[in-house]
Amino acid sequence: MYIFKAAVIGAGAMGAGIAQVISFSGLPVVLKDMDQKFLDRGMEQVRMIYQRRVDKGRMSAGEMDSKMSLIIPTLDYGEFGDVDIVIEVVPEKMTLKQKIFAELDGICPEGTIFASNTSALSISEMGRATQRPHKMIGMHFFNPANVMKLVEIIKGEGTDEETISDVVSFTESLRKIPVVVKECPGFLVNRLLVVYLNEAVLCLQEGAASMQEIDAAMREYGWPMGPFTLIDFTGLDVAADVGQYLYSQYGERMKGAEMFERLVKLGRLGEKSGAGFYGYGDQTDEPVTKIIEELSTGKQPTEFTPERLMYQMINEAARCVEEGIADTKDIDMAVIAGLGMTYKGDRIGPLALADKLGIDVVVNGLEEFEKKYGMRFHPCNKLYELVKEGRLGEKTKAGFLEYV
């Protein structure tokens, strides 16, 4: 099915960004919100994105006006009678999402695809709130949507192959990179990112290193920004909510660092609130220093190394292979496109990195970390299986990938 008209529900930063991406591809798109203030703000955000293109000489003012005219702002469902796909971009509350999709079920044509931009919640549960679970799918864009290339396409238990194919084609028409993943809590990228970020925060609250030291070390390792800068950019409340959900689903290995809860209670939500791990404007990071002192007083400081963070991500990526969440190349592509991962100047994902370092080296490192810090570092079966088979990575010409 070709998509001729789209709709986005939720005119916040992500919703507005997705609407801009769709309009830029030349398709008309309805942008709906419940509040005129948010709708106006969303439209202004879209205009600002286009204006930057005009200012850089990449688009004329006339072209900007033409693209803006493709976006139909609305407070009701009047424009939804002929849409081919609806992308929901509202807060991460399952009851709210189910309510919206149940409403849409009685408004949209029978063939309309329902997509959720959720970063972690169950697509299958959303589908069960409708009479068309075969048309329900996850379409997870990354922030900022107009810049980031990756879109995770998540299959629910009832999603049919035609819907998957249609959404993959639609994603490609938006000049994005689709990666199809099996449904699981956190899907793919956020599942890997959470263990990496959480380990960074544990290092901080255990006195292993400062925020500045950890951020600098991970930038030097190859990341476009350090973990604390990234958390502040994403929002501590968002990171804490996703982390808490994954903990409820996966257990102790995903238990969140205490600092998340403490900082959220102080209203330090990141850049958007003027303070997170770092202070912005006239804010400082003094409250963070105080919390670290409280949590680490009387305890022996632990040790920070980039491997402590990276081996966690590699281990979780190997679990995703083990569970069939996505294939090896797609996992690596998702982390590169979604998070900008590099290593020593090369664009490389966690599984190819494991091959480069040596899977036996990674397993030995995880076992050492397990002795020091607990079961969250226990190597998964897939890693042990590869070592047993002698597939140690590049040095044996075979690991997660094959080498000629």
Characterization of the model:
It is a single chain. This protein has 17 helices and ten strands. With 404 residues, it is an alpha/beta fold. The protein folds into three domains: 6-182, NAD(P)-binding Rossmann-like Domain (Rossmann fold); 189-296, N-(1-d-carboxylethyl)-l-norvaline Dehydrogenase, domain 2; 306-396, N-(1-d-carboxylethyl)-l-norvaline Dehydrogenase, domain 2. An eight-stranded mixed β-sheet has the order 3-2-1-4-5-6-7-8, with helices on both faces. Strands 9-10 form a two-stranded antiparallel sheet. Helix 6 links the parallel strand 7 and strand 8. Helix 13 (306-322) packs across helix 15. The radius of gyration is 22 Å and the shape is globular. The model has no long low-confidence stretch (mean pLDDT 95).
Approximately what portion of the residues adopt beta-strand conformation?
Answer: 5-15%
How many helices? The count is: 17
Average predicted local confidence, pLDDT: 95
| H/E series | EHEHHEEHEHEEHEHHHHHHHHEEHHH
> Uncertain runs with pLDDT below 50, 5 residues or more?
none
Total domain units: 3
CATH top level assignment of the largest domain: Alpha Beta
Major beta sheet summary: 8 strands, mixed
Q: State the CATH topology of the largest domain.
A: Rossmann fold
Strand adjacency order, main sheet: 3-2-1-4-5-6-7-8
Helix proportion range: 40-55%
Shape estimate: globular
N→C terminal distance: 40 Å
Class of secondary structure makeup:
alpha/beta
Total DSSP E strands: 10
Quick one: CATH superfamily of the largest domain? NAD(P)-binding Rossmann-like Domain
Q: Nearest-angstrom radius of gyration?
A: 22 Å
CATH architecture verdict of the largest domain: 3-Layer(aba) Sandwich
